[in-house]
Design goal:
CATH architecture of the largest domain: Alpha-Beta Barrel
Shape: globular
Number of strands: 16
Strand content: 15-25%
Number of domains: 2
Distance between the termini: 46 Å
Low-confidence stretches: none
Largest sheet: 10 strands, mixed
Bound molecules: magnesium ion
Helix content: 25-40%
Order of helices and strands: EEEHHHHEHEEHEHEHEHEHEHEHEEHEE
Radius of gyration: 21 Å
Number of helices: 13
Mean pLDDT: 95
């Protein structure tokens, strides 16, 4: 059995999804997702300029050897661009393998450990009243877990993932498709530290003990500040505190651990098992946030899940809307299987346009995600629909302090 061809598509409704379709001489094809938010053309070029011609003639069933060929075979290896390209190929090969077996992918991992997998939604508000409205809407829809992000009084601009003006709730406020020159957000740590712990307490009081409340610091704090914040919010009982500090300095997590038992989630910008090995083995985190998309695909992320299981670290895969329904399907199969599953980030992708481009029987009900039993990933790709979309330049904001110092987005 041989790979005969592969094609890459870039575009989609309100996002630049990077989709690979790998064809075989057995009449079975596989799908993978190489979307790297705001850098989408780069993994697409890596695939088309360097990798696809190497795949032609390979046996698609040898996904482990092909993964090693892609990773070890590249002298300059790793990094988000390359790992997104490898991950897309790997995901497509697992799709082919499961279709050949006539089974949903989770069966190849060891079957289901649960029926529905817990997901969390994104609630956001320009102020606390708007945030409460946004949370209530998700609770009314049956969500059991919600990430909460709030505008900070006196902050010169909107901060991470919140709308600029009151009355806008529940949308994705991150990517700006007006071009590749980013907007600037102004950040003030003191104002955040004074406001946010109490706001989280008010959310707990309003919604009661059962709602799982998550909060994303988005790398904005220094280690000592993060330790103080994690300690201050302990009475709230957060499900997790996400990215309290940038994870380049992994020893910083020790300071947070020494001062607080608030659960910590990190890893959405990680690309390999070596990025999180220390954090997992030293049990400095509680949830690993890597994604199948730019974590090298199913082969590599499954290794991370197994390592995490040895150290009481649960999964909390990245699920920003920049991941296409293909990688979300791959993660849904891992979520159905993983004995150390925790939660899945889930933003509503199910617009009619997105469903038409990526048809599937996966579905969300009462805050749980149910995986399709169709053979393979259980998601398809409509090339006729794809023809109407093209790449749109977009950007994340950059962050500066009030004196102009560039800060962590
Ligand atoms: Mg995050």
């Amino acid at each position: 059995m041989k790979i005969t061809d592969a094609q890459v598509f870039v575009g989609g409704p309100a996002k630049n999804y990077v989709t690979i379709k790998i064809m075989t001489d057995a009449g079975v094809y596989g799908l993978g997702d190489a979307t790297l938010n705001n850098r989408e053309t780069l993994p697409a070029a890596y695939l088309t300029d360097y990798l696809i011609s190497n795949l032609i003639g390979m046996d698609p069933r040898q996904s482990e050897d092909i993964w090693q060929f892609l990773y070890r075979g590249a002298y300059f290896r790793g990094g988000p661009i390359a790992m997104a390209a490898y991950g897309a190929i790997d995901t497509a090969l697992w799709d082919i393998k499961a279709k050949l077996a006539g089974m949903p992918l989770y069966q190849l991992f060891g079957g289901k450990s649960r029926d529905g997998a817990l997901v969390y939604a994104h609630a956001a508000g320009a102020d606390l009243a708007d945030l409460m409205t946004s949370i209530a809407r998700y609770v009314d829809q049956g969500y059991k877990a919600v990430r909460v992000q709030c505008g900070i009084p006196g902050m010169p601009t909107a901060s991470y993932a919140v709308p600029e003006t009151a009355g806008q709730t529940g949308a994705d406020f991150i990517t700006d498709f007006s071009g590749i020159r980013p907007k600037t957000e102004i950040w003030d740590t003191d104002k955040y530290m004074r406001f946010m712990p109490d706001a989280l307490g008010q959310i707990r009081d309003k919604f009661g003990p059962d709602l799982k409340i998550l909060h994303d610091v988005h790398h904005r704090l220094l280690p000592r500040e993060a330790a103080a914040f994690a300690k201050a919010v302990e009475p709230v009982g957060l499900y997790w505190l996400e990215d309290p500090t940038p994870a380049e300095d992994q020893d910083a997590l020790k300071l947070i651990r020494q001062h607080s038992t608030t659960p910590i989630a990190i890893g959405e910008v990680f690309n390999t098992i070596w990025d999180c090995q220390k954090l997992i083995e030293q049990e400095l985190i509680d949830f690993i946030r890597i994604a199948v998309t730019y974590g090298g695909g199913i082969t590599h992320v499954k290794r991370i899940v197994d390592l995490a299981a040895l150290h009481h670290v649960r999964t909390g895969f990245h699920g920003a809307p920049s991941h296409s329904p293909i990688s979300m399907a791959a993660q849904a199969h891992l979520n159905a299987w993983a004995p150390n599953f925790g939660i899945q980030e889930y933003l509503v992708l199910g617009t009619p346009e997105c469903d038409a481009l990526f048809p599937s029987k996966h579905y969300l009900k009462d805050g749980l995600f149910y995986v399709s039993d169709d053979p393979g990933l259980g998601v398809d790709f409509d090339e006729g629909e794809a023809a109407q979309y093209e790449y749109k330049p977009g950007s994340h904001p950059v962050v500066r302090l009030q004196d102009g110092t560039l800060w962590n987005y």
